[in-house]
Amino acid sequence: MEVVLRDVRDDDLPAFFAQMNDPEGLRMAAFTAKDPSDRALFEAHWARIRQDSTVIARTILGDGDEVVGHAGVFGPPEEREVTYWIGREYWGRGAATAALRKLIGVATERPLHARAAADNLASIQVLKKCGFEISGSARDFANARGEEVDEVLLTLLH
User: Fold this and answer.
1) What angle is formed at CA 36 by the lines to CA 124 and CA 146, rounded to 5 degrees?
2) CA-CA distance, 154 to 135, in Å (whole number)?
3) Residue 157, Cβ neighbours under 10 Å: how many?
4) What span, in angstroms and rounded, lies between the C-alpha atoms of 143 and 7?
């Protein structure tokens, strides 16, 4: 799937909100907001992201300028981390891989880090396709699952 990244716009937020409240998407992502259905907290979160000059936040667009999801890079130097969310209707079509490849072309600093629930094999595969290598593991509380889960830590060095 061909995708384009662009700056986040106000009119992208309703699509993000819907995507980030999909039950299957929440389960796969695992590490989410405590209450993703709280629209006020969602809006405040995105306002902070968009005002932080150290954060790279992009809307992922597909065919016909449809909002496929979002991707970003955040965190202090040496701890910069990538994140992405793809709407479930676009899973399995290469959107995540294409978007992440474009994102790491924009965010040229290295290393870049990523995290994924250990059972989210699709996300781990996307990260590996983009050059990330497994660099560790952890266990953390996953709000979307209401329990601690294993996670895989990945790093992009080059």
Assistant:
1) 65
2) 5
3) 10
4) 28
The answer to whether residues 106 and 58 touch, using CB atoms and an 8 Å cutoff, is yes
Sign for the CA dihedral angle at 80, 136, 94, 158 comes to: positive
114-to-18, 79, 124, 140 alpha-carbon distances in Å: 23, 10, 9, 14
Encoded amino acid at 41, one letter: L
CA dihedral sign of residues 46, 48, 53, 54: negative
pTM over cut 0.90: yes
Rounded-to-integer distance, Cα 50 and Cα 30, Å? 23
Instruction: Kindly state the tokens that stand for 147.
Output: 């329990």
Tokens, residue 72: 């970003």
Percent of the chain with pLDDT strictly greater than 70: 100
pLDDT at 93: 97
pLDDT tens, 110-140? 999 999 999 999 999 999 999 999 999 999 9
**Distance, CA of 153 to CA of 136 (rounded, Å):** 5
How many CA atoms lie less than 13 Å away from 90 in the CB half-sphere? 23
Region 58-62 average pLDDT: 98
Cis previous bond, 77, omega within 30: no
Residue 151's beta-bridge partner residues? Answer: 117, 138
